[in-house]
Predict the structure.
Amino acid sequence: MARAHDSRQTVPDTPGTGSDDDGVIRRRPLRGRHVEETVEVAVPVRTAYNQWTQFKTFRRFSTAVLAVEQPKPTVTVWTIGYGPLRRRFAVEIVEQDPDAYLAWRGLEQRPSHQGEVEFRPTASGGTAVTVRMLLEPRGAAKVLTGSSGAARLTGRLVRRELGNFKRFIEGLGEEGGAWRGTIRNGRVQHDHPEPPRSRVAQWPVG
């Protein structure tokens, strides 16, 4: 059964991480009433994470995702469909920690959404994959999507897609690719930043 969680804490609108005065990174909880679903997959955390972040392969197991484009590391464009209905929208990845966590927010205006997925090792050597989603409707849609019925429907969809992912990755047994980058506040973090360019002219020698 779908679980709806109500977070009353005063936190920024965007999910992800925050840094306290001591410099320790702490994840921010999703604000408001959100749906949460978890599935355990029988592969190691690294395998589950690597496959999940191969977004273009979602259409191979998802019953709703028709196509995914990734114009840059922090932006994906999704085309989803149910029967004759089609919808295309862009998503920004705001936080990403390899083998641990990914948070995103929709770039569309109405209705918008945000969410996060967390990867945790289990005692059996598998991975617990938890997805949390929060819809942010506008206008009349706010009344509809704010109802318990909408939360149950969203929860069912998330649970079904997690089950599809479980069957897919366990059938493969290994990931089909990997991107091991870290993202903070929508920006890719580079382990070895380029040194500043010298302003002194470099004259040819020899």
Observations:
- Helices lie at 45-52, 141-145, 148-172.
- The chain is about 20% helix and 40% strand.
- The longest helix spans residues 148-172.
